[in-house]
Amino acid sequence: MKNSMPKAIILLLYLGSFFIFSCSKQLLDIKNQTYKSYNRDSEKGYIVNFELINTEIIPKSIVINGIVQNIPIANKTIKNYQVNVIAQTTIIHNYQVKLEKKENGIYFEKDSIVFFQPVKFKLIKDSPKD
To answer: How far apart are CA 37 and CA 12, in angstroms?
Structure first.
């Protein structure tokens, strides 16, 4: 009975460290993550920018303030992405805004597996006009 207790503790520590290591591998290095709201003509939404250090992972869509927007490959320049997240429009006929009750973040795909990473985007406010 005395030998089983240290073995159980060692096994728990091993499994715990394995779990932490596997979860940390999913966290991607995202930098300069910002968004700015816009309201022009008949369209409202957000311009979202971020830099992805790991270029092997493909960002599929972005969630900002509950709105989901796919990320076209045309929105990528080297490591930087700029995505127009449309919240409301009358310009695009029959456009449907995709909503999701999820925190701000990015959906990624690697090896045909899609996963979500929460991201704290910094809101950029317009400076007051003089």
So the answer is: 47
| Sequence letter at residue 26 | Q
User: Residue type at 103?
Assistant: E
Cα distance between residue 104 and residue 121, in whole Å: 7
Phi, psi of 101 (to 5 degrees): -85, 80
How far apart are alpha carbons 107 and 115 in whole angstroms? Answer: 6
The domain tally of the chain equals 1
**Structure-model confidence comparison of residues 90 and 21, the more confident one:** 90
Round to whole Å and give the CA distance between 17 and 5.
18
Rounded Cα distance between 27 and 18, Å, is: 15
The pTM of the whole model exceeds 0.70:
yes
The pLDDT tens digits for 39-71 are 988 899 999 999 988 777 889 999 999 999 999
Beta pairing, strands 122-123 & 30-40: parallel
- Asked whether residue 5 is assigned to any structural domain, the reply reads no
**Is 97 a residue whose pLDDT tops 70?**
yes
Residues spanned by the domain of 52:
29-123
Does residue 117 fall inside a structural domain? Answer: yes
